[in-house]
């Protein structure tokens, strides 16, 4: 019999304690006085933390404990949040309130819950003195997700000869292969969710999407301080900041912790509270998804046979696709569509092993991407307007225009659209906002 009670009846969610020993961060949570939920993150070959970085390391470990709690908090979403042994200052509470509210917005929407006014981290602790520099070496951690975005970021960083390590969290062999393909030094950090979470899920706890990029980011902040890196360079594109849908005045964005709002909050928090010489940014922030697929078509050839953007590959528990692309999910649909304008057709078909745009059974999936009679899918896909621009470009190309879904687009959807808004070129122009440090700005130029 389970020793867990239904977390949906709990009065409080507790951040019990955190520790670090022998390269393993232990993050402990509980509902009320129930059994402990212990997540472990293992940093291979972890060196001893140098004395001048000890304060920053503790601040980063505490931050990781607080951020990673989102996976467990969601199981019960009780009224009270308790942080044992420490009272968050206002900046910390604000960062976490925002992360839990917006990062769980899809979870709340799909479970018909309203977290507004419910997510409230305790606060009132003294704001610490502003963090100083801790002498981090000039080199970057570049997270690898197995897909096109991180490949583009890696190749841009390599093009300016900046020192960098390809890093990933979790045990995906697909990501490991991509990371090795980069030719950079590699670092694989293991993450083990508390087994009790799966027990709670089986009991019918609340479940749904979590802002996993925030969790990976907090893990990499700890890694940067531990191993000595002055920057963490994600590959989150501009399109990730655009909400999936709006509901009762609240934006619901599946990709919230990939968006610029979260990036800026964490960047500022790290400078003020952890280490003033640790940069957190996204190299792809100025670019749309279409600009990224266009760059991938140019730079990504060495990865064509090993990469995948299909998130079904990255499940911890659920079934994985037989080959790298399931061909059925929104990610497969979007990446196929967004690469098509920039790549020879046969090349694309050989990557996917099929032509998704000549398959009538995929109509609903592509309609959702175009925001035609549906909202954008809850997945990491580009804006509806850029999907429409890609579809329109294909409808002008002799090699694509007779494929089943392009024919349908021309006949049924295009007449309802304003052609002046369907040009591809504006999507290839970079935007202005990004937090890329001066030292790496040449890598931005390499993408332009
Ligand atoms: C791989 C994937 O997409 N998983 C999502 C899926 O989970 P599923 O039940 O199919 O299987 P598992 O991934 O094996 O998860 C098992 C359970 O564990 C929970 N969980 C997992 C990881 C974690 O960090 N915390 C957790 O609590 C999970 O809830 C499962 O019950 O559906 C779930 C429910 O919607 C999603 O939560 C799973 O998403 C993963 C957390 C995940 O890694 N997803 C990324 C591929 C993803 O969605 N990335 C977004 C970025 C969003 C952001 O703001 O960071 C993107 O690329 O757009
Ligand atoms: N397991 C992971 N460990 C570390 N970073 C990750 C992991 N999964 C994704 N990321 C990073 O999170 C960011 C967003 O992931 P995303 O899935 O959009 O990127 P991707 O896999 O490179 O490209 P694609 O959009 O084709 O899937 C990227 O910077 C990616 O490197």
UniProtKB/TrEMBL annotation:
<dbReference type="InterPro" id="IPR053538">
    <property type="entry name" value="MurL_epimerase"/>
</dbReference>
<dbReference type="GO" id="GO:0005737">
    <property type="term" value="C:cytoplasm"/>
</dbReference>
<dbReference type="GO" id="GO:0051301">
    <property type="term" value="P:cell division"/>
</dbReference>
<dbReference type="InterPro" id="IPR058740">
    <property type="entry name" value="MurL_N"/>
</dbReference>
<feature type="domain" description="MurL C-terminal">
    <location>
        <begin position="306"/>
        <end position="416"/>
    </location>
</feature>
<dbReference type="GO" id="GO:0016855">
    <property type="term" value="F:racemase and epimerase activity, acting on amino acids and derivatives"/>
</dbReference>
<keyword id="KW-0132">Cell division</keyword>
<dbReference type="InterPro" id="IPR058741">
    <property type="entry name" value="MurL_C"/>
</dbReference>
<dbReference type="Pfam" id="PF26299">
    <property type="entry name" value="MurL_N"/>
</dbReference>
<keyword id="KW-0133">Cell shape</keyword>
<dbReference type="Pfam" id="PF26298">
    <property type="entry name" value="MurL_epimerase_C"/>
</dbReference>
<keyword id="KW-0573">Peptidoglycan synthesis</keyword>
<protein>
    <recommendedName>
        <fullName>UDP-N-acetyl-alpha-D-muramoyl-L-alanyl-L-glutamate epimerase</fullName>
        <ecNumber>5.1.1.23</ecNumber>
    </recommendedName>
</protein>
<keyword id="KW-0413">Isomerase</keyword>
<comment type="function">
    <text>Cell wall formation. Catalyzes epimerization of the terminal L-glutamate in UDP-N-acetyl-alpha-D-muramoyl-L-alanyl-L-glutamate.</text>
</comment>
<dbReference type="GO" id="GO:0009252">
    <property type="term" value="P:peptidoglycan biosynthetic process"/>
</dbReference>
<comment type="pathway">
    <text>Cell wall biogenesis; peptidoglycan biosynthesis.</text>
</comment>
<comment type="similarity">
    <text>Belongs to the MurL family.</text>
</comment>
<dbReference type="GO" id="GO:0008360">
    <property type="term" value="P:regulation of cell shape"/>
</dbReference>
<keyword id="KW-0961">Cell wall biogenesis/degradation</keyword>
<dbReference type="GO" id="GO:0071555">
    <property type="term" value="P:cell wall organization"/>
</dbReference>
<keyword id="KW-0131">Cell cycle</keyword>
<dbReference type="InterPro" id="IPR043689">
    <property type="entry name" value="MurL"/>
</dbReference>
<feature type="domain" description="MurL N-terminal">
    <location>
        <begin position="6"/>
        <end position="283"/>
    </location>
</feature>
